[in-house]
């Protein structure tokens, strides 16, 4: 195994990030405030939610039909991001977050934030902020809970009502993730901002056919604009460059996304073996900043 830079792990007090978030969390069953009771969070109505030993807490009420990423997908994403292939994207998100950091109190919410890598980078840049990673995957939550000392990890279904108090977020991050417009609008404080990262049709184009990867809708930008009616655009940057990926990189990249759900590991190995030893791959993602319009 090559030496990789892992997501920083902070061993002390695994639920340390939850304490600072209690003011923005609410019960998914009744929306009442939550309090910390030793190894669980609880509301006055008697609903309680155990804090996992890794430090995250699952606030999904009832069953959810949305499956999170598998442990294999999460590990692949961590390995790939640790190789710094997406570093320019992380840098762009953090620079825009710092430049447009609103003068309002509130938490940084990373929507479907995976292992919390983007959230951790933003919190490093904004030392006065705390953050929360909302994520469905248990495997990802285990890592996100230790991603940053000022961050907490919460199990949530992003398509339902989020277990967050209204107007409790200053910044919402939406990086390669589904977006629930009504919930984003509900949790953003007046003056708060939304930062999105959306792949263009050129993103990873050299690997899509050879590896059977999911294509990007060429009308995705138009759909995003329609999804975000009621939000005013503030800024946008196209992050585009070429990556040189060897077989291991290409295999890991394909295994960290939706391809892992519909292409078997053996088939993926066979496809990767047919690639050149080093493949030039296009990275093309638009990062945009929005503010919720008044009214």
TrEMBL record:
Pfam families: Zn_ribbon_RlmA (PF21302). GO terms for molecular function: metal ion binding; methyltransferase activity. Residues 26-64 form the 23S rRNA (guanine(745)-N(1))-methyltransferase N-terminal domain. Keywords: Metal-binding, S-adenosyl-L-methionine, Ubiquinone, Zinc. Zn(2+) binds at residues 43, 47. InterPro entries: RlmA_N, rRNA_m1G-MeTrfase_A_prd, SAM-dependent_MTases_sf. Transmembrane segments: none annotated. Coiled coil: none annotated. S-adenosyl-L-methionine binds at residues 86, 115-116, 203. SUPFAM superfamilies: S-adenosyl-L-methionine-dependent methyltransferases. This is Ubiquinone biosynthesis protein.
């Amino acid at each position: 195994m090559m030496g990789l830079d892992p997501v920083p792990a902070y061993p002390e007090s695994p639920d340390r990030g939850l304490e600072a978030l209690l003011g923005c969390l609410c019960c998914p069953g009744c929306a009442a405030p939550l309090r910390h009771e030793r190894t669980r969070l609880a509301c006055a109505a008697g609903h309680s939610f155990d804090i996992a030993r890794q430090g995250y807490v699952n606030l999904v009420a009832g069953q959810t039909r949305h499956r999170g990423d598998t442990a294999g997908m999460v590990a692949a994403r961590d390995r790939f991001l640790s190789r710094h292939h997406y570093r320019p994207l992380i840098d762009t998100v953090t620079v825009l977050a710092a430049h447009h950091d609103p003068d309002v109190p509130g938490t940084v919410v990373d929507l479907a934030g995976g292992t919390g890598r983007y959230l951790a980078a933003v919190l490093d840049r904004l030392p006065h902020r705390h953050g929360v990673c909302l994520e469905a995957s248990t495997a990802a939550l285990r890592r996100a809970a230790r991603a940053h000392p000022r961050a907490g990890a919460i199990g949530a279904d992003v398509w339902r009502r989020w277990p967050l108090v209204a107007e409790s977020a200053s910044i919402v991050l939406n990086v390669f993730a589904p977006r629930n417009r009504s919930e984003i609008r509900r949790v953003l404080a007046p003056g708060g901002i939304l930062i999105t990262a959306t792949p263009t049709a050129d993103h990873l184009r050299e690997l899509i056919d050879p590896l059977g990867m999911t294509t990007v809708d060429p009308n995705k930008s138009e759909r995003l604009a329609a999804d975000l009616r009621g939000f005013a655009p503030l800024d946008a940057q196209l992050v585009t460059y070429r990556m040189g990926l060897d077989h291991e990189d290409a295999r890991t990249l394909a295994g960290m996304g939706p391809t892992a759900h519909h292409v078997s590991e053996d088939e993926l190995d066979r496809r990767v073996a047919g690639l050149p030893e080093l493949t030039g791959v296009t990275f093309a993602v638009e990062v945009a900043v929005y503010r919720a319009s008044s009214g």
